[in-house]
Amino acid sequence: MKQNNGMKNNLLVESTSRNLPEVSAPQPPQQGYGGYGVNGVNVQSEDAAYLREFLFSLRKYWLLIAGVTMLTTALVAVYMFRQPNLYQASARVQVDLENPSPTLGTNKAGTYVVNPVNDPAYFNTQLQILTSPRLLRRVVKDLDLEHDASFKLPQSNATSSRWQKWFGGTTPAKSAVIDQPSSTGIDELDSTREDLAEATRLAPYVAALKLGLKAEPVKEVRLLIKETRLIDLSFEYPNPQLATRIVNKVAETFVLSNLERKTISNQSTGEILQQRTADLKSQIKEQEIQLLDYAKNHQILSLDAAQNTVVERLTNLNRQLLEAENERKVAEAAYQAALAPGAADALASGGGAREPNDIEGRLSQLVQRRSQLMVDFTPAWPEVKEIDNQIAALETQLRQTRNRASTVVVTNLSTHYRQAVARERALRSAFNQQRAETLEQNEAAVNYRILQQEIETNRLLLEGMLQRSKENEAALASMRNNIHVSDYAVIPSVAVGPKRFLFIGIAFALSLLLGVGVAVFLGYLDDSFRSTDDLERTLNLRALAAIPSTNGNRLLTTSNGNGSNGNGASNYELMLEPGHPLPFREAYRQLRTSMLLSSRRGAFKSLLVASSMPGEGRTMIAVNTALSLSRTGALVLIIDADLRRPSLHSVFDLENENGLTTLLSNGLDDNDPLRFIQHSEKGVGVLTAGPIVDDSAELLGTEKMRRVIETLQGIYDYVIIDSPPINYFTDAVLVSSLVDRVVLVVDSYKSGRETVKRASQLLHDAGAPTLGIILNNVKEPRYNLKNYSTPSTQTYAEA
Fold this sequence. Notes:
By secondary structure, the chain is α/β, with parallel strands linked by helices. It has helices spanning about 1-15, 45-60, 60-80, 120-130, 135-145, 155-165, 170-180, 185-210, 240-295, 310-340, 345-350, 355-375, 380-475, 500-525, 530-540, 580-600, 620-630, 650, 660-665, 670-675, 695-700, 705-715, 730-735, 755-765; strands at about 85-95, 215-220, 225-235, 485, 495, 545-550, 555, 570, 605-610, 635-640, 680, 685, 720, 740-745, 770-780.
């Protein structure tokens, strides 16, 4: 025992004396199991991580990328080399402006007439006409391509026609015939049906011509002004002779159709002008007769105001009406003034009436006589009384006379006012009647003038039509075609297509991009861990080592496959045995060194090897870690705590009749654990699981288990414990609280991120002292076992 401890201490001193970085003991996660680095610091930049993920996906799925690329490129290459050669025949057409005849250049006023063909869109329109279905349909009929055996339709058109024929599909042209209006004549409807039927029959041939026909304007690159009025017309077809015939025929048909269009247009214009001239003459004659009848019916003699009696009479009546209105206003004012209190008496007295004046004179004499008598006599004197009676009689008579005069004045003013009102009413009635007659005559005059203006307008139109008719006749006489063929096509001798290597290169590039995209997508769906950096960044725990993939070399185990190196095989080998590739042994040496350096500040005696799910290589890691520690001279014991699916007895070829379950089920004393420990030929002690029981969690979580571990720690330098998966059973979580350190095994291809995160979180919640993580089954080029071999004459000294 002392010798083993000495060897262990020597190894530790030797390991720490090397130029290795000092690694502190692992700390529990500060941001949970999903953090990215301690204290929020990223372990690695995001750009580098993304690049590494991308390269990993390419390396992992390189066969898929190569397969997609090669297969697609091969198919495209076969297809392209099966295509026939294409020959291009080219002709050139010149499109000039439609200059009108000099006789049509000016109008009657001498101003310039703008020609609509000078529009910049004219040249673009001719380009569209050059490849229009109507023109191509005429070419098909002229060349009789429908019955030409050398002209073959493209495969797409033939396939479409075959499908349409098999399934009875209707074409748009046939449906258009049904939608014709019912008002169309029978002959015109029959002609339309024939045209539509012909267009439908020739549609595949027109589509084939349009597919290979190109019309491009010619650009002048040597001058500042690039535009020309030349059009290059080309047609590609496998038959060079037929291609030449077709392109020349298209050019000739284009020239001929333009001349026909212009001729037909001018002829149609002449007929329209003649018909319109005859219509205008007949219309002018009818309007003149209508104007004469209108003047007769409305008694229109003259439209001159100076010679119009109706207007003169209306003027006189208007003047008399104004005088009557003034007279009525004066009479009304006098009458209203006489109605005021005292006004009538004043008017009556101011009028110089004779009778009141005589009475007033006599009354004045009597008053004077009475005044004389009153000098000598009293009022009772008989003569005075007589004079008083006469004065009273005269005053009564004077008052009656004045009242009668006031009444006469008011009556006279009232009579004069009524006469003025009656006169005004009579004049107003006559004025209104005369005005109505005048308005009626004015309306008739307006309509008369409108009819006159229509006649004058039609006469002007007639003159313009006659002028245009003469100009059109002159244009027909001087008609010339502004489009002609500049260069005819010759039979080509060199093929221009198909561009096989270009399409093959494009197919290669696209298929390569497709393969890379699929690989990246599959890599995105793969949530396994690619590297130790990825593992540390995800779980915020230190990666102790990366164990390479065995590539078929397995530990010998039971058929359940538990403890394999991550790929589920039924057998695997002890990796530290002589004759195995060097990377395996170096990986476990690195694991051993990492564990020893990580525990410098707190040495561990017991170590639990756990995993999140079955098949991650947990048992293999535990076995080879125990063997690696034992080769330092330390006394090592490995315990099979996987009481549900034990496998250590199969690995070391030991009996499993008694083991951990037997020890925990019975009474415990200091010598009991040693009785159940078996010593293997590999130099480690093995405590097998024993018989399988149903209550394994109750056994592992008892005080007995703690005492067993403490007892064994006092005997052995290292106690390695293999446990069942954490996410499936609670056994590993219970044992994690009884040991000094815990290591978590993660398979780089099987373990999902969420699964491993959950296992790490369970250990963290249980307060387990996690030492670090071991990434198993790493498939990287640096672990390519073919690059390493074990020399037969040279051995590697164990550290």
